[in-house]
Amino acid sequence: MAELKTQRTGASVRAFLDGIPDADRRRDCKAVLRLMQRVTGLKPEMWGTSMVGFGLYRYTYASGHSGEWFQVGFAPRKRDLTVYLMAGFDGLEPLLARLGKHKTGKSCLYIGELGDIDTAVLEKMIEACVIRLQHRRG
Q1: What CATH number does the domain containing 87 carry?
Q2: Which end of the chain is more exposed for a tag (fewer CB within 10 A), N or C?
Q3: What are phi and psi of 98, to 5 degrees?
Q4: Which residues contact 14 (CB under 8 A, 6 or more apart)?
C-alpha cells in the first residue's frame, strides 16, 4: 500500500494559525491549540498543509498496512473547525450528548464555532482519546 500523502512537515504551527484569514476561525483554532497542548502536554506539529496534530500512535489494519498518525488534532475548514479524535467516539456518547452543536464522522468532530460547544466537555473527550490510544500501545 502507498505511503500516506499527509505527513508531519516541520512547518510553523504559529505561522499557519496566524495566516487563517477569518478572525473568528483563527481565534477558535488558537483556543483549541491551547486546550490540546494543556491536555496532552505535547508540542503541536503541522501535518500536511492544514492539520495541527499532537502526539503519535501506530496503527495496523487487518490488511497488515501500518503507519503513524497523530492522536488528536484539528484543522480549520471552510464550513467547520474539524477536531480529530483518532480513538473514535465509542463510549463517548454521554459526552457527545452534552457537547453542544456539532456533527461527527468516524474520528472527526465538526464544530461551526467554538462558542457553540462546551469546551470543558471537549477537554474530557480529548483526554479520553489520548488515554485510549496510550492503552492500545501497552
Answers
A1: 3.90.1150.200
A2: C
A3: -100, -5
A4: none
Contacts of residue 70, defined as CB under 8 A and 6 or more positions apart, other chains included, come to: 45, 47, 51, 53, 54, 55, 56, 57, 84, 86
On whether residue 3 sits in a domain, the answer given is no
Could you read off the pLDDT tens digit of each residue along the chain, which spans 138 residues? 455 677 889 999 999 999 999 999 999 999 999 999 999 999 999 999 999 999 998 877 788 878 888 999 999 998 999 999 999 999 999 999 999 999 999 999 999 999 999 999 999 999 999 999 887 654
Three cell numbers at 39? 491536555
109 forms beta bridges with 83, 104
What is the C-alpha R_g of the chain?
15
If phi > 0 it is left, if psi is from -120 to 50 it is alpha, else beta; for residue 2 that is: beta
Q: What's the domain range around 39?
A: 13-137
Residues 56, 43 contacting (CB under 8 angstroms): no
Total domain count, the chain:
1
> Looking at the whole model, is its pTM more than 0.70?
yes
